[in-house]
Fold these 4 entries.
Entry 1:
Amino acid sequence: MPPTDDPPTTDRRPPTTGHVTLVGAGPGDPGLITVAGLEALRNADVVLHDALAPRALLREAPAGAEVRNVGKRAGAHAATQDEIEALMLERARAGKRVVRLKGGDPFVFGRGSEEMRACREAGVPCTVVPGVTSAIGAFAYAGIPVTHRGLSSAFMVINARSMNDGVTSWRAAAEVDTLVLLMGAENLAECAGRLVAEGRAPETPAASVQWGTRPDQRVVTGTLADIADRVAEAGLSAPLVTVVGPVAELAGELAWFDPAPLAGRQIAVTRSRAQSSELVDLLEAEGAFVTETPTIELVSRAGSADLCEAVAAPADWWAFSSANGVHVAMETLTAAGLDSRALAGRRLAAVGEATAAALAGYGLRPDFVPE
């Protein structure tokens, strides 16, 4: 094999024993998950996901995987942090491949380091798959870079709830070129006031983004003096990220992300799960949030004795009412030791273009398709 300058890739083969993988799902757009994160998800036995992890990604888990919401939102905790860690370790000790799916990046205010420490202390193998943090990704979708030549050469990310934690330097936050505030929907006015008190100019540009990178993303711009009022007037709420600094003014010039026609619409798809994927993909491509709620279950009778007898019996016409019927009929022919040549001399009718297309997939052309 010829030499290459490319660095060796990380070994991402699925572990064969109990293992925990902390996966960053990104800020909202499911397409922003990394290749390594998607691979871990597709090989998981157990998925413990945050409330903000994109729902579309949960469909990537294997059919038999245990998928559980352990998310914590303000005033609504599905599980405590201790309960999450206990469940994660319990499943891993049982030999399961556990994916802890987190919004954004596990190590940016995601408590990923705490969960990794719990694994280390318990002797459970643990790896991390970084993700796109909302501190950068949400603003990128709003046309706001956190650094820009001539405007900002450094940025700082802080938890907006750290007002009185005794650790965060709000003086440094007031002085940095670009400041990003996470989890600041409830106390944005208080944060702005603190920054002004620490010396930041009230007229400093600012912008807030709700549901960044999702089709229902909303952006409000203003200044440090009025951003909280503008956010309230627009009705923006959590999850919300705010940027303070000259780069916020670039939103008007560099904004590129336009909501799709179905942005923010909640749509339930009631088709059987086996047949819904194409429709779900089309709806999500137009910005809809799709919930799969199958109201029917398809049970194939292909190969049953009575069906084998029926397909072998003489007939002038075979009429197919659905693509499912086409597939079952062809499977039954196979089970009877026959193939499409057994249909020689019979005429075929198909109800609908999808049924006709299913026949075409077997090299058969219907003689009649009603309009």
Entry 2:
Amino acid sequence: MNDLNIRKNSISEDAPLYTFINFTSYIYNNYKTFIFIILGIICISLLDAFYCLVVKAREQSKYLKDLDLERERYFIVVEQLNDIIFDFDITEKKILSSSKFEETFGWTLNIQDYNKGFLNELKIHPDDKILINKITDDMKALNKQSIIKQIRLMKSNGDYLWCELKLNYIQRDNKIVRVIGKITDIDHIVKEHSLLKLRSEYDQLTQIYNKSTFYEKVKNYIIDNKNDNCMLIFIDLDNFKAINDNLGHMVGDEVLKDTANKICDVFNGTDVIISRFGGDEFCVFKPSHSISFIKDKISILCSNLNATYIGNNTEITVSASIGVAFYPKHGDTLESLIHKSDIALYSSKENGKNQFTIYNKNLEIEC
């Protein structure tokens, strides 16, 4: 303060600086203790703030290290999964997926700025697009937190794999901002199931429908097409037992396969349902045409099925007796049509075999 007084004495009393120095001297002399307290508080506050800043920086550094560690652990876990994990960031329009996606499909799903709807980036089979629309609708309506669908996704070579797609979404303010998904390869399961279904539907020897499938498909057709005119053809081989007895069951199996092929050659439309009904019996259900057309077709079938088989120095001729009934003229259920066509078939047998008979009421009187 002595230095301050010397400077004060060397300055004119009218100068602003003199006034300022005089005021400063007054404050210092009268409030010195208070000023030191204030300065102490400020210093302590600054030190506290600095300490907090250092601590926060350390905590943030530790947090970032922990976050990096968790991220690394997450990616390790994801890469070890058999399933494919992907992440759609709808806000940033970014897609990330585990490396197994590229291993499985041969192309990458990692996209930085997609233009289409994010699900369309998956290259979904055209027939499954309707499922994707349903998924999108459910997500928009926020109806389901977890959505699971079976769809086909395209590989780089153009083939499709059956996959199970599971989606979970994150929303903010009733708006979906992120979709986390899992893709599971179920191709072998679906194909195995399809194979088992085929085996359950088809006769393993002749590769045409078995009896139970025939019942199911014909009944469904009648339900869906009640106003159609249809015919049921019941076929029973003549002399087939002689084939098994004299030529053996292996030849008998070949005769049955040959019979099925001949039936399919004559009745080859997409609307025809053909079945091995059991043993040496076969059934054909078809939307009917004119009587003359039907007679021509069945006459051709009779001619084709009339064949001679040779073995063990023995010749055996196999033919077919056939009965025909019409829907709804002769019956409005499959059971009634089978019953009527069986009556007609019996008449063909009684009248010399190797022929067909169309059902009429007089046949029941004869039976």
Entry 3:
Amino acid sequence: MYGRIAVLDKPFGEFKVQEIPVPEPKRGELLVRQVMCGVCGTDVHIYQGRLPDVKYPLVLGHEIIGTIEKLGEGVNRDHTGREVEEGDLIYVIPALRCRRCYFCLDLRQPNLCMDGTAYGFNPYPDEPPGFYGGYGEFLYMRHPNSEFLKIDAKPEAAVFLEPLTIGIHAVSRVEIHVGDVVVVQGAGAIGLSALIAAKEKGAFKMIVIGAPKSRLELAKEFGADLTIDIEEIEDPKERVEIVKSETRGGYGADVVIECTGFPSAVPEGIDMVRRGGFYAVAGHFTDAGPVMINPYSAFTRKHINLVGVWSSRLEDFIRGRPIIESGRYPIEKIVSHKLPLERCKDAMEAMIEGYRLDGKEVRKIVIQGGL
């Protein structure tokens, strides 16, 4: 049996669709038939050559949902003990941690693993491209540290699990109490994930800042109490004052979570935080450049808690699964485009050039190997 993969040959290169033999899973391994794979901003960064450690050529895609095509000997349960059989829908946890470095073993912070890799990031750079990323008809889970979760949801909702884990991880890095005001900068997939996670944690008032208007309307469906359209209110100082007017005493938000990837959002967001509040940077997974900040007025005098958010952890997937399975949020509405392997480059260019594709605004693109 043969299956197809879309191979990116170089930065800003071409996605060449190739047919290669489908492997037979050995003991402890798993063969997954891809149902869909979300296109992430990190995929775009790799396409642009902005992640220096990634080797080309490779098969991209780490937001992978699929059905079990074939179980290797000894594989009969997911990580949480749910029994699995061929045909079950599962979510592939992309990160492949080493489980032996200082961060994995001593600090119990596997998201900071220095020796790990991931599906969709060329985990076997010394081999020809294979079924090791989501932009293909199959995924071959041969790495000994592979993990997956069985999931009971529509694929259009289930595919959001990995982005949701970023929001869950971000919220775990701050303190949210009942009655708190939380601001999310950015209305994309990560912004919506932070919105969901903050609401689940007990935030009383949720404010989402971003654009375009259709994304902000979706944020309202997810539970945002107030949205601020940056295309309508272009002055950052005015946006800061709007946020402060929605807080107790006008002091500012208890928590602000940045999910934009734009450096200019950081000083604006810090201005929105009350003294002693929390500011989490969750949108910068590559170097987008520096920004000017006064440490005295931004950090010391305000006595704020500034935290970074890098990747996510297995526990974030486990916490996110029941949220998706519950159906309490219209998560399936996030998917706006379903593309075949032959259109991977169209997905990249659309996310670079204005988030429009086929005459429609892009919210979330998924690649489907079977189209």
Entry 4:
Amino acid sequence: MMEFSDKVLRWFDAHGRKHLPWQAGKDAYRVWLSEIMLQQTQVTTVIPYFLRFIDRFPDVKALAAAPIDQVLQHWAGLGYYARAHRLHACAQQVVNQHAGKFPEDLNGLMALPGVGRSTAGAILALAMEHRGVILDGNVKRVLARYAAIDHPTGSSAFERELWDRAETLTPWVRAGDYAQAMMDLGATLCKRHTPQCLICPVMEACKARAEGAPADYPKAARSKKLPYVERSGLVILDAEGRVLLERRPPLGLWAGLYSFPESEFTQEMDIHNAWQAWLPHNTSMQKMDYFEHTFSHYRLRMNLWKVVVQSLTLIADKDCLWYDFRSQEAPGMPAPISRYLQQGAWPLGKK
């Protein structure tokens, strides 16, 4: 009887993706970068970001030497910005502690910032041709259906059983092709809502298909209602139409990126009192519109207030800049802020 891995590899030889931009040359840097970008993000979205990133930071030494601002600028729009900070820290550790070479063992790779068990396995298999076990979202879906794993996603029992299955099924030969094949299988056939079971290479032994309900796997965890967080953002404009941006703290939401100055208050008087050290006396504030953005743990509503000033006393301990999106290169900004500025949703420089 043909083994699971043999069937997957035979399918990969005929149908697998072999021309993705990070597959060229089996380079550990490119594989690592792609794996970090692909976390929570689809391949079609990642490709243009990857190409721009590689063009600016062609190797790990270039990335390690770059200012974090430039890294964030090239990451902006991909979301989950903590990944960019860990990416930069990892590159610096590879350069400073490993002479610019990625470790070639699982424990050494997992000691790097932001490199977990699956990412380490992918680097070993895809770049170094060692046996490496991967378990990204696509592979989890394939294995959860193949074995009809009944534990809810995210539970420790679900993760434990998946890793046991992945370790058992991963072959010792062609581990890199097998890793790519499993990711491709999940992305192109074993899709979340429309699994194409009839052309799947492992359909005959798939327990979820035998039950007649492959789309019911993986079992969803009980959904939680996301809390609602309301904030106020100050769109402070000068007479030239430039907008004031403040760098966010290095940890937390949109870490290290430039955004509108914010306030936890929602009423004009409270906002003005909170920012009185900045805003000239009797500065008028105009209520604008708002935008909403959903994060993994809550939903943000940002109410926007327009303030036009002739001059502004910047607080010394604030990291701010005046930005003219019509003529300046954009600093690293969260995607919602960048989109709002590009829309030009207000008459610049007018009261």
